[in-house]
């Protein structure tokens, strides 16, 4: 494409000289050769440089155009992918947000259903009494006669019909290895009013069977017992301060301070509830130690509730409350 210095100075034959050579005119060839051996002028060099520059520019422009065209195609492809990625991210964000709302709604519904099921379970046990410390020597056939005599002793003015027992049996668990820890007796009374009278009477004066002092409890769902166990530090603080509390249905703890009622619906609210009443809560181990000292037992420390989030209380229902022992 470019001429060297030797090419610029060496002689060359023109087309006319070649034609003349072919036609046999040697004189014309010699004349043309002599004319071409003349040195290049400044104008010739300028024209040659101009032509070379134009060729370089054209070649460079073509190469740049080719590369720029490829870059443009790549950028357009990247722009398309980025636009699609932004659309996908926006869709995922919207979907994730909707899923979060659905999960919150379903969690709330699940908690509501669990609370409702627990409430129904407890209401189905309203007529039940759980009796602790009745010796295992009282076998299954002797449970009903023994309880009838016991209830007539507790309520001497009650009639046979009022003390009617629907069913009674031992707790459905294996027999304890320790004979001093008999299985509880679960009794279902025919009449709720009679059951409440028995609970009130035994709360004031626990009855005895032989050398054993019997303890009467309301039969409750396992989930409710776990919640009450989690509230052990609070109930002990209330007892220490001389404040009476009441358990309600669905699960709640009511305390009256002055002319104001305070209600707790979930163990997760315990600290705020205690603060509102001006109470100092014991730790789980401290509460267990104090309970064991007072009752001579081996009570395990209450575990904190698994879900610390405050739960929405289920719909209000008729209260069937009893004063705590």
Automatic annotation (TrEMBL):
Give the transmembrane region(s): none
Which InterPro entries has this protein been placed in?
Transposase_22
Region described as Disordered: 1-36, 292-325
Q: Which domain of life is it from?
A: Eukaryota
Keyword Electron transport (UniProt): no
Where, if anywhere, are coiled coils annotated? Answer: 42-95
Q: Enumerate the UniProt keywords alphabetically.
A: Coiled coil
Q: Which family does it belong to?
A: Belongs to the transposase 22 family.
Q: Which PANTHER family match?
A: L1 TRANSPOSABLE ELEMENT-RELATED
Protein name, entry field: L1 transposable element RRM domain-containing protein
Report the source organism.
Answer: Pelobates cultripes
């Amino acid at each position: 494409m470019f001429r060297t210095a030797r090419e610029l100075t060496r002689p060359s034959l023109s087309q006319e000289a070649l034609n003349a050579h072919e036609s046999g005119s040697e004189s014309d060839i010699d004349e043309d050769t002599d004319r071409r051996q003349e040195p290049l002028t400044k104008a010739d060099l300028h024209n040659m440089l101009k032509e070379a520059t134009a060729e370089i520019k054209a070649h460079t422009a073509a190469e740049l155009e080719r590369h720029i065209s490829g870059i443009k195609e790549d950028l357009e492809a990247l722009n398309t992918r980025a636009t699609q990625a932004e659309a996908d991210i926006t869709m995922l964000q919207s979907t994730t947000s909707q899923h979060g709302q659905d999960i919150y709604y379903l969690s709330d519904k699940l908690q509501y259903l669990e609370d409702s099921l627990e409430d129904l379970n407890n209401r189905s046990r309203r007529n039940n009494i759980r009796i602790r410390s009745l010796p295992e020597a009282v076998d299954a056939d002797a449970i009903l006669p023994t309880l009838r005599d016991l209830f007539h002793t507790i309520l001497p003015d009650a009639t046979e019909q009022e003390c009617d027992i629907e069913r009674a049996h031992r707790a459905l668990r294996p027999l304890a290895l320790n004979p001093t820890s008999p299985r509880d007796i679960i009794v279902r009374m025919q009449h709720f009013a009679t059951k409440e009278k028995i609970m009130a009477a035994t709360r004031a004066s626990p009855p005895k069977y032989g050398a054993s002092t019997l303890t009467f409890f309301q039969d409750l769902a396992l989930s409710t017992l776990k919640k009450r166990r989690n509230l052990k530090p609070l109930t002990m603080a209330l007892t220490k301060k001389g404040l009476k509390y009441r358990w309600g249905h669905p699960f709640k703890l009511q305390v009256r301070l002055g002319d104001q009622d305070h209600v707790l619906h979930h163990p997760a609210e315990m600290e705020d509830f205690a603060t509102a009443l001006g109470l100092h809560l014991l730790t789980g181990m401290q509460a267990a130690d104090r309970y064991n000292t007072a009752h001579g037992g081996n009570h395990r420390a209450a575990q904190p509730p698994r879900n610390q989030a405050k739960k929405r209380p289920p719909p209000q229902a008729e209260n069937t409350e009893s004063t705590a022992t």
